[in-house]
Amino acid sequence: MFDALHCFLTVVDTGNLSRAAKTLQLAVSSVSRRIDWLEEEVGARLFVRSSRLVLLTDAGERFLPRARHLVAELAEAKAAVTAVDPEPRGVLTVTAPRAFGRRHIAPAVGEFLHRYPLMELELQLNDDVVDLSAQRVDVAIRLAPLPDSDLLATYLAPRRRIACASPTYLARRGTPATPLDLLDHNCMSYVSRSALACWWSFDGVNRNKPLPVSGSLRSDDVDFMLDAAIGGAGVAHLPSWLASEALVAGQLVPLFGPASQGEERVTDGIHAVRLPGRSHPVKAQLFIAYLRDHVGTPPYWERALAAHEHVAA
Prior knowledge:
The chain is α/β, with parallel strands linked by helices. 42% of the residues lie in helices and 18% in strands. It has 10 helices and 11 strands. Helix 5 links the parallel strand 3 and strand 4 (119-125). The termini are far apart. Keywords: DNA-binding, Transcription, Transcription regulation. Pfam families: HTH_1, LysR_substrate. GO terms for molecular function: DNA-binding transcription factor activity; sequence-specific DNA binding.
């Protein structure tokens, strides 16, 4: 299978069977037989062939990204089992959003580095979405929905937002009974290139579209919004991974039901992603597996909220 996939990709990259055969140091007939075998295996024609060139069929176009993914994964697997050094070593570069990195990655790296003493970790905190194909990054933590791509994604946790406000604000302005009541409240807005279009969305409300809330405070920093909400500046719609400590401490009050099972939309989760074919796949996999265990299922911030609500009840 690996040889056939590699042959398929070489034909795509070179444009015809003759050049692919020269690149692979095979006879043209051997290349043709491997393509025939692969087409029979997948049950579809992948190429329209002529004497001078080959063109991908619609099925071939759909199969191409998956073939690249499979070849990269097989290469990584081979490298992993044939590595002569059993102890992972060297630099691993990780990027993450600033607030999430400070709260949930920084506390975890000490034990990771103790477990793998020959490794070094370079953590880049950046709220922009980093292009892993253009920069030397091994692992990226993504909080937004993942587009279709060649990235390998590992699910870490659900991504859930909680509408909340401080006791001071609620005493002054009253407590909204439903999400629609937020239209009469001072609601904070998150303004950023990575801002989610569904930031103020609630399941079953306004056809699941964002509510047209308004307010006197906007920021591109979620930590600032958290502190401002605690200070009574208005209603915030914060990620549970960010607001959980303040909710447990009573500095913020969840609106519309318990914080661990509110009415907010549960969107695509938090993922660790990597690009197949990078030079450090084993180290990246070790870090991702460690981080997944550290976060737990359900994630520890959700467990803290559930325990707090149980005690309060």
